[in-house]
Sequence to fold (1076 residues):
Amino acid sequence: MSTAPTDQDTTYHSLVDGAALAGTAGSIRAVNPATNGEGETEFTLLDDDQVTKATEAAEQAFAAYRTITPQQRSAFLTAAAAKIEASGEQIITTAMAETGLPQQRLQGELARTVNQLRLFAKVAETGDHLGVRIEPALPDRKPLPRPDLRQRKLALGPVAVFGASNFPLAFSVAGGDTASALAAGCPVVFKAHNAHPGTSQIVGQAICAAVAEQGLPSGVFSLVYGHGKEVGQALVRDPRIKAVGFTGSRSGGTALMETAAARSEPIPVYAEMSSINPIFVLPSALEKSEELASGFVTSLTGSAGQLCTAPGLLFVPEGPAGDAFVEQISQQLSETTGSTMLTPGICASRKRGEETLAELPGVAQVARGAEGSGENAPAAAVYSTDVSTFLSTAALSEEIFGSVCLVIRYANAAELTEAVTGLEGQLTATLHLDEENADDVAVARNLLPHLELKAGRILVGGWPTGVDVGDAIVHGGPFPATSDGRSTSVGTLAIDRWLRPVAYQNLPEALQPQEVRESNPWHLTRRINGEYQLASRK
Amino acid sequence: MSTAPTDQDTTYHSLVDGAALAGTAGSIRAVNPATNGEGETEFTLLDDDQVTKATEAAEQAFAAYRTITPQQRSAFLTAAAAKIEASGEQIITTAMAETGLPQQRLQGELARTVNQLRLFAKVAETGDHLGVRIEPALPDRKPLPRPDLRQRKLALGPVAVFGASNFPLAFSVAGGDTASALAAGCPVVFKAHNAHPGTSQIVGQAICAAVAEQGLPSGVFSLVYGHGKEVGQALVRDPRIKAVGFTGSRSGGTALMETAAARSEPIPVYAEMSSINPIFVLPSALEKSEELASGFVTSLTGSAGQLCTAPGLLFVPEGPAGDAFVEQISQQLSETTGSTMLTPGICASRKRGEETLAELPGVAQVARGAEGSGENAPAAAVYSTDVSTFLSTAALSEEIFGSVCLVIRYANAAELTEAVTGLEGQLTATLHLDEENADDVAVARNLLPHLELKAGRILVGGWPTGVDVGDAIVHGGPFPATSDGRSTSVGTLAIDRWLRPVAYQNLPEALQPQEVRESNPWHLTRRINGEYQLASRK
Fold:
């Protein structure tokens, strides 16, 4: 195992099957987006054939890894969390230089990442996701006897995970996809994002160290560096890979979906891609417009607008109260300074997106902040249009990743419904209303059934940025928010993505998996004859 | 609504949005496969544009249908079961003429169909599939307060269902896909199989009558006749359709998968397609070879071998005991007479499949029955080969739909493992062993982890034909057994296919859906802070 990437003269490699593997497809260096300066550390890139070593190791590890006890799996995830935490200082320093994200944000993200691993350690140990269902034999049933049937869920197999640029920790090497797949019993081959290779190396080493410490097969986790598209496609085509997790752009996600669907054995792809997270301000919410404007500006500009749930559409009533609200936004936004974006490429793409937006007929700029110091720190900006322009201009539904928002002025509730019906799938939708105001409540009640069909999470009040990682969260939504609206990439339900049910008919107990045995050795909550029987936990 | 198709002079039509809709794309008549004679009744076929009327009606109905109470949904499914049962005699007579299946088999299938509807009525009423998870707000949590988060599952939207030829009732108009989708809250547009249009008409009328009786929107269920491929593709392309259920051939299923993946909004396809259901006879099981041979012949020839779970591969040890077993099969099979297959086309395809098989090098016929009287009643046949031929000949893994089985003689346990590793995904895998024999048990224990990765249901003893519809069954499996190994098309878990989760953050109770309200008005079992709280049911 290599040392950590703060030693500037060292070259770092992919971590494959428990060892560093020098890539033969060139190398990259991290770029500090605040200066556009290259780091001194080199990271070698694997070619397609080398990636196969990781998938072979994952396949090899799968047989043993999927059958360890819930306690062993939980101990492994807990150990990984502890080792990442122990490298916390180094992780934060490296991530700051590689992503331009501020220290406090990264500290919060690190805490979220290790808490997420510990949450999945608990999930793995509890075993509710195993979904055990038992129907004992009924030999005397008429007209036919009932066989003994026992069902449990099983890990799909090795999973390829692609991390996001915008969460170098919580949606990266040890992020939610990795944590939930490992908790399910799937080995993970993680494709590092080239925007934060050093951060990835430290976290990858921590996971590998936990694998070794816990005596697990070394193929349980591999970290691979490579040219994004080539290696990504090779991974998804690899017959040993049985599912894919991805967080990134719509074009990147749909390319993986196509590759996965074209395999001789198609596999599921869970891609979280694109969302513009509409906010609906109902008339009476404007009574607290000052506070609302301030909340909006904070949500829009946090992390340079580079959050999957950042508000991209703000529906505001026409008329003087709405005008005043937009004026307050303009005032408050003018006092903001742009912060550094993740990469020069993301910043360039955001600038192009804003230029396209600004030139569209019927769209006008209504608010603008100041550029930040250093490179890649564009000014936050808000534009405005009306519902009919929005509905007739497809480009206005495209996400601009960064702190750009479109205000849509609406005339009445009917226009709002029409706009919602015209939306694509979203991660979130937010309503601001006065809960005491009967008109607002009536409009909300009418909108909700439409919003439910468009979004994975619906908020009343507050802002969609900030995702609480727990048991009830949904971070998902209909296409193109994700490739598969039947799932979430955050929270305990995310584990369901990596499982499939298997039924056992008339197996003697000695041949049954532990999960379904009469004696319930793992103390699982199970369904017996269709009724839950709660585990007697210690 | 039209009358029933026993009136021979009447022409029948699709049932769309609660009324008969005469198709403009020609018409078909049923063919009696025992005589190849055409029925006198005509069924008009819809063109692509007419099919849109059904999807529009389904979309229209969705808003109201998905929000009715569990009791209302349960009452509707129960009413549909009763109305189908009331037409039982007419259904059986019509189905016998259209499918060549014997009366007793169809009576059993009818009972299964109405029981399945009643099972899903109970599922709908219980509401466990709603998957409610609640995490109440924790305003004092550090470092950040926790919002109130409430999650429930929601129906995906209108579903297109394609019925199978081989189960004119249980996998057809009111089959498992329809029952589970309706129970989930999804309107159904059912594409009738052209092999049993009259049976479809009677069952479709019964469901439409239940829709009307229960005061539900008429678009909740439509039955459409059409040219299979054209209308099928049009349905799956239709933007109002949000998921697809299909039972049929591999080519038919993969064609729908491709169409669904190519939509601007890709949708899930649940296709149950192709399985050869391997049976593994371990050495000591041969001590009861007479009984085993008899069970095998019954499983192979039942319903003319036209069951998704019919045994297509039989692994038998090399050596004298295995030889004797194959001889017993040969003896018993020679006493069987072929029964009528479902359609002339299916019979022709089975004959072609057998011819191809017979000509493959290393494959020899070892057993054959007699042809049946009348048309389309081929003799059952068993061929034999060895493991290395099986593994090196891709054609031997292709399903031949009908009573044709391939015996594979194996030398030892290692060859068996190798053969399993070379299998494609299957609905079932069956082991026959002597549970008292340590060698058999050791071989089984070694095979099971491999079988789990290949099949949705694993049996010890017995035969895979005969699927028990309940809470613990899995009728699914990795591709190509199904398009999506994460699901089952039979049993209560099938409802999960039509749902997606939505989270509600900080909604005032008055705006929350009933499922997640603190007062739990629907008496649901829910997860509160990650722990199940069982419903207090009446």
